[in-house]
Amino acid sequence: MPRLVKLIFIILLALSPAVAAAQQTIINVPSSDVLPYGEIILKQSNKFRPFGAGQYVSLTPQVIMGTGKDTEISVEAGTNIEDTTSVKLNLTAKKVFRIKKAARFTVGGTLSPSLTEGQKPDSMIYAHGSYLCKKTRTTFTAGGFVGGRQEMPSLTGVMLGVDQTIIPNKLRVAVDWVSRDESWGVFGAGLKIRPEPTTSITTAVLIPNSSQDRVAFSISISKYVGKVLPEFVRKEEQEQGENL
Prior knowledge:
The protein has helices at 3-14, 231-243, and strands at residues 39-49, 56-68, 71-81, 85-98, 103-112, 122-133, 138-148, 155-167, 171-178, 186-196, 199-208, 216-227. By secondary structure, the protein is mainly β. Strand 10 (186-196) and strand 11 (199-208) form a beta hairpin. It is globular and about 45 Å long. Mean pLDDT is 84; it is low at 1-23 and 239-244.
């Protein structure tokens, strides 16, 4: 691995200590959770396939920040360790529309340029609706996406997810599915555990849609940092908008 890539990887890991209050994904599907303005979550996600051919380990530190008006951005660096090591930067953004107290509509997109290979970036645009059934404490999510591997989005697919609360603010069960046979096409099922109010741990099994791939596992640890952007910055922006 080039020295520069190693340095970047070390710095990103240092910025991402054991890590997320509210998880910003179900398992693989983006959730309708969105951070308020100026608040940050640090997240460390690890995936591994320990059995059979195609063994790998993937380490992905991530920073998620609320940008106001129910919008959110995140930056992550995914390092995939197989026969060779590759590093990919994922830049994502989403906007959540609150239809009712129990319903939301989310749109977002991801751009994923490679930091180690001379390839065009992967890309994805998605939209889905979520509904919270308060009686059972179950959130249902359904929608679609347009994705592209090293090209502009052109491949269409489906996203589905269910998030079930077992113990409020302590334990949830989650499953989701992304269609197609590309690398993002996978069924995920796992547990979300919150040992303390600002920390969340998610463990899951990942079953790929492609018969050529094998089952993998994931574990992510998230830490809610809190508000890092001062409120006066937002007030100044509002005042500027009123003067236009």
